[in-house]
TrEMBL record:
Gene3D superfamilies: Phosphoglycerate kinase, N-terminal domain. It comes from Tripterygium wilfordii (Thunder God vine). Belongs to the phosphoglycerate kinase family. Monomer. Pathway: Carbohydrate biosynthesis; Calvin cycle. Keywords: ATP-binding, Calvin cycle, Chloroplast, Kinase, Magnesium, Metal-binding, Nucleotide-binding, Plastid, Transferase, Transit peptide. This is Phosphoglycerate kinase.
């Protein structure tokens, strides 16, 4: 994250009232704090003392949100699930399961994080307990043709341990030898195919390759949310040859939370968006501005917003070609009545390094030669106060350079706050990527309502995009979600 300053120009929202009591048009003129409307004390949610009007505007908005009633939600992208299939549907059937087993391996081919393997287990267990023959497929890494270091062989011991049976491993994903292994597979057995991306036809979604994969099975289950945003042979192509084609438990849960909870959230609904660049989160921010009540921004992207407001950002990360966009997003938030909060203070450093000299400054006080790498304590306090008003929170992107312990305070504070809120019944959704790594690092992952397993897929869903791997599945009747 780059450095930040107190956004004084964000407070230039003058609200005049006519003699008749009607609200006049807002003007973008500097206004002294003495013109603040008087009345009931408001929660302190401003950016800085230099920004009293904007502080009042935000506090008013949040106070009004507190009084609103939670709405009921409906899952809006319901797909037929593996749970809808009966024992008679599965007994003795060959089921092609596309999972996302793309786990990190060290130089010795040891799994360093088995989260995705564990996430796939409920679907596979359900199938084998109902007597199905599971043909498990996945990719690993970005191989260029057959690449031994990207073989799925290192996954077999952990899969076998978690499933409680010996998983059989194929040396290919199509061909006569694979067909023989499928034919010898007992009811309740599991065959792990080799990396489907060893074939270039996988990512090209070539029909003949998809047909060869599909020929191994009787029906299809997609539980690979992390690749559902790609129209590949094993995620979209096979559905043209296998019926039924249904969602696995993990994929269904992702849809329930990321589509259901976000499209019809219990309110107030807050979104926290971080990360280094505005450009990578444009679609997410624009989409969330249509849905949320409060939007908190952090990470390196904030300096583009600050510079767009005329603030000095030192040597902080700035996307010069996105300055106009940042201004438009701020205007959109204002026009939609969304409380958009930028950090009031930041932790700045004299270089991008874990041992850099650092200090805390107001967002408007970043000196030349210094860069912002985290949000400051005042910002953490302000963000926490805003989050205390919420019923649903989704988080995507860190608040700073959390890989460096010295600049991980803001990100870790958000993780701990969401864990606290989750314990109070607030729906907390961690939308993939670095945010997942952050809650894992802090040790609060188990306390969150939902942690998404897909980085790019999560982002695209939050942007409101349709995922090819999901669209290809059989439809189901929408299921009401209790308030």
């Amino acid at each position: 994250m780059a450095s930040a300053a107190a956004p004084t120009t964000l407070s230039l929202l003058k609200i005049a009232t006519s003699s008749s009591g009607t609200r006049a048009r807002a003007s973008l003129l500097p206004v002294p704090s003495s013109t603040l409307l008087r009345g009931t004390p408001l929660p302190r949610l401003g950016f800085a003392a230099a920004d009293p009007i904007f502080a009042h505007h935000v506090a008013s908005k949040v106070q009004s949100i507190k009084a609103s009633k939670p709405s009921r939600g409906v899952v809006s992208m319901a797909k037929k699930s593996v749970g809808d299939l009966t024992a008679s549907d599965l007994k003795g059937k060959k089921v092609f399961v596309r999972a996302d087993l793309n786990v990190p391996l060290d130089d010795s081919q040891n799994i360093t994080d088995d989260t995705r393997i564990r996430a796939a287990i409920p679907t596979v267990k359900h199938l084998i307990q109902n007597g199905a023959k599971v043909i498990l497929s996945s990719h690993l890494g970005r191989p260029k043709g057959v690449t031994p270091k990207f073989s799925l062989a290192p996954l077999v011991p952990r899969l076998s341990e978690l499933l409680g049976i010996q998983v059989v491993k194929a040396d290919d994903c199509i061909g006569p030898e694979v067909e023989k292994l499928v034919a010898s597979l007992p009811d309740g057995g599991v065959l792990l195919l080799e990396n489907v991306r060893f074939y270039k036809e996988e990512e090209k979604n070539e029909p003949e390759f998809a047909k060869k994969l599909a020929s191994l099975a009787d029906l299809y289950v997609n539980d690979a949310f992390g690749t559902a945003h790609r129209a590949h042979a094993s995620t979209e192509g096979v559905t043209k040859f296998l019926q039924p084609s249904v969602a696995g438990f993990l994929l269904q849960k992702e849809l329930d939370y990321l589509v259901g909870a976000v499209s019809s959230p219990k309110r107030p609904f807050a979104a926290i968006v971080g990360g280094s660049k505005v450009s990578s989160k444009i679609g997410v921010i624009e989409s969330l501005l249509e849905k949320c009540d409060i939007l908190l921004l952090g990470g390196g992207m904030i300096f583009t917003f600050y510079k767009a407001q005329g603030l000095s950002v030192g040597s902080s990360l700035v996307e010069e070609d996105k300055l106009d966009l940042a201004t438009k997003l701020l205007e959109k938030a204002k026009s939609r009545g969304v409380s958009l909060l930028l950090p009031a203070d930041v932790v700045i450093a004299d270089k991008f390094a874990p041992d850099a000299n650092s200090k805390i400054v107001p967002a408007s006080g970043i000196p030349d030669g210094w860069m912002g790498l985290d949000i400051g304590p005042e910002s953490i306090k302000t963000f926490n106060e805003a989050l205390d008003t919420t019923q649903t929170v989704i988080w995507n992107g860190p608040m700073g350079v959390f890989e460096f312990d010295k600049f991980a305070v803001g990100t870790e504070a958000i993780a701990k706050k969401l864990a606290e809120l989750s314990g109070k019944g607030v729906t907390t959704i961690i939308g993939g990527g670095d945010s997942v790594a952050a809650v894992e690092k802090v040790g609060v992952a188990e306390k969150m309502s939902h942690i998404s397993t897909g980085g790019g897929a999560s982002l695209e869903l939050l942007e409101g995009k349709e995922l090819p791997g999901v669209l290809a599945l059989d439809e189901a009747i929408p299921v009401p979600v209790s308030a």
